[in-house]
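G., the chain you wanted modeled:
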Amino acid sequence: MRSLLAAVAITAGLLSAAPAFAQASAEDLVRATAAKIFEEPAPASTEAEFLLQSVDVPAVTRFALGRHARSIAPADYARFEAAARGYLFRTLEAQLRTYGDARVELRETITRKPNDVIVRTRLTPKRGNALDLSWRLIDRGAGWKVVDLEVFGLWLAIETRAQFQALLEQPGANVDTLIARLETLNFQPQQRADNSRG
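Predicted structure as tokens:
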């Protein structure tokens, strides 16, 4: 009986520790990614590509396409995913050009579900005002991945979906229209307005 109670106690302890361990793993990913991006100056293109390595790009692009993802042909979807990834890259690159070296501080972690958390951080640049940046991460069994980023009250994946849907709802528009638009944007040169990065 004593051994059974001990086993129950150990099991309960392991279960109660699981969310804390998962939360710590998500925080570790955010801390390492943010430090690499904001505390180790590099060209914005390099930083954007590094950030995308921590992002669940297939999940984000499928979410952004909405209901159209259910009916698109596989070949067209592969083309869309490549174009959407390029769009995300350019969006992140443009944002990263705005900020120079910054100190990263983890503020809090909100557990939505055991495998779904939001990690809130604060970036304090050498010049300018501090910026609050939130990271939503989900672990679908293969480790934590970023599925959304929030700054100034706007979530990247949600805003991207809204933009895609707005284009798709235009008269005569379809997924091919969206893909062509994204591919055109991806080939346009980025404006280099900030000289604090390479």
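Residues 1-21, 193-198 have pLDDT under 50 and may be disordered.

Shout if anything looks off.
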